[in-house]
Write a structure and sequence with these properties.
The chain is an all-alpha fold. The chain contains eleven helices and no strands.
């Protein structure tokens, strides 16, 4: 067990060293999109929108947190795809005396860290813009779970897809529609019934629901938390199996 955790830390530490050297660029680049969302939808469009509780900015920030942590976690782990397909450097990990599961967990944790740093930036910006949120350990837990789910999905895609274009299509055909339909900017109840039922099965919808309820001080939607945890377990199993197939 000690060897397993040592392997996880080794993989994670390699990514942390890379991130630390690029930290300033990483933080500045992650401020652009949330800043534009807050200005355009929070200050601009949001002033003409009424919601049941609080301001539209208070409604919007949890959705932006869910959206941004999804994108950052997914895209932070996709360089594994280039290491596998183009650079062939993933083979160094495969032949190294590292447990395959430890490699998957180490990579996912490194992406989760990037997602959390980006989320912290959004929370700081939201405070500057005047948003009022209730922050709690459960709120942090949901953010971590969301990062885990989408980092695992990114890892699975990196193991299965064979071209850079195919990876880009995951962003275009899966992440982008989820960004706008999964309760980020409006409640899913506004969608046509047939589409709504499908959208409410997706993990980002449950993250938005959880973060919005917790930030407003409402009761925890335990069903959504259970669904998110189930996604995390399922995606880990799929990613682990895909990576193990490379090592056979």
């Amino acid at each position: 067990m000690g060897r397993f955790f040592s392997d996880v830390i080794t993989v994670f530490w390699r990514d942390w060293i890379v991130l630390k050297r690029r930290m300033v660029k990483f933080i500045l680049s992650r401020m652009v999109a949330p800043l534009l969302y807050l200005v355009a939808f929070g200050w601009g469009l949001g002033r003409s929108i009424q919601v049941e509780s609080g301001s539209y900015l208070d409604f919007l920030v949890p959705g932006i947190l869910a959206l941004n942590s999804m994108n950052i976690s997914f895209n932070s782990i996709t360089p594994v795809h280039a290491e596998r397909v183009y650079h062939k450097s993933l083979e160094e990990y495969i032949i190294a005396p590292i447990c395959p599961d430890a490699f998957v967990i180490g990579k996912v944790l490194a992406s989760v860290l990037r997602g959390l740093i980006s989320s912290a930036i959004i929370l700081l910006l939201a405070g500057v813009f005047g948003a009022h949120l209730s922050f709690s350990p459960l709120f942090l837990l949901v953010l971590v779970l969301n990062c885990v789910v989408f980092a695992e999905i990114g890892f699975l895609a990196a193991m299965k897809l064979s071209t850079y274009e195919a990876m880009a299509q995951v962003n275009t055909y899966i992440l982008l529609p989820m960004s706008f339909l999964c309760g980020t900017f409006f409640k899913t109840a506004a969608l046509p019934e047939g589409i709504r039922h499908f959208i409410e099965l997706l993990p980002l919808t449950h993250t938005s629901t959880l973060l919005r309820a917790l930030s407003a001080g409402e009761a925890m939607p335990w069903l959504s938390l259970s669904v998110l945890a189930a996604y995390a377990l399922l995606c880990f199993w799929l990613g682990r199996r895909a990576f193990r197939q490379l090592t056979l």
